[in-house]
Predict the 3D structure of the following.
Amino acid sequence: MANILWTVYLGILGTLAIGYFIKGGYKTHSAKLDFVISIITWIGLFGYVTSNELFTPLLWKVVFIGGLVWDLAYGLKKFNEDANKIPRAARPAIFGVTALIMIGPLYYGLFQYAF
C-alpha cells in the first residue's frame, strides 16, 4: 500500500512539473533553475520509491540539502509575490503548512534515500 501511495505522489509531482512546463510557466532564469532542481529531486525520489541505487548517497545528500534550501527560499519568494490577499501576519504559517503538505513527502523520501 505504501508503495502505491509513493508512486501516486511521484506521478502527481511529475505531472505538475511537466504540465507547468508545457503551459510555459518557466519564463525567468530562477524559474528555469527551479524546474531543473525539481527534476533532479524527482529522480532522487524515483530512486527511493523503486529501491534502485542511482548515483551515490553523497550526491543525494547534496541534492537533499541544496534542493530543500532552494525550494524553501524560492517558494517563499513566489508565495509572498502571489499572496497579496493573505494577511501579512498569517503568511508564514500558511506557507509552512502548504510547504509541509506539498514538498514534505518529497524531502522525507530524499532524506531516506540519501541517509
Q: What stands out?
A: The CA atoms of residues 10 and 46 lie 7 Å apart.
